Amino acid sequence: VQLVESGGGSVQAGGSLALSCVAAKLAYSSNCMGWFRQAPGKEREGVAAILLRGDDTAYADSVKDRFTISRDNAAKTVHLQMDSLKPEDTATYYCAAGDVVYPLDQREYNYWGQGTQVTVS
After folding, report:
1. Span 31-84, pLDDT tens digits
2. C-alpha triplet 49, 51, 55: angle, nearest 5°
3. Is there a contact between 7 and 19 (Cβ–Cβ < 8 Å)?
4. 31-45 CB burial, b ≥16 within 10 A, e <16
5. Helix (H) or strand (E) holding 25
6. Nearest-angstrom CA–CA distance, 95 and 110
7. What whole-number distance in Å separates Cα of residue 51 and Cα of residue 13?
């Protein structure tokens, strides 16, 4: 298993949740890790991504200024802090790693976690 997510759960609108993703050495050797989400009946979409060597990040417009992605290289972990949550943020959130050119394009990612549920009511 290359990626293991934790965090998630249920929260009321306006609340906060934090997700974490611990990567195995192989996955963390990629150039980028990202978070994606899929709501029932919808396509999986990119939420946020971060380069593993460098400071560049990318966010979907729908989460910009509410979500923050960060990394801890020593722990091979990427975090997603989600604030001001809305009901439309409800989805299964997936962590991914890969050597990517377009950080929010899921097609470029090689490694995927099992997903963690986030429910906002």
Report:
1. 999 999 999 999 999 999 999 988 799 999 999 999 999 999 999 999 999 999
2. 105
3. yes
4. ebbbbbbeeeeeebe
5. helix 25-28
6. 11
7. 30
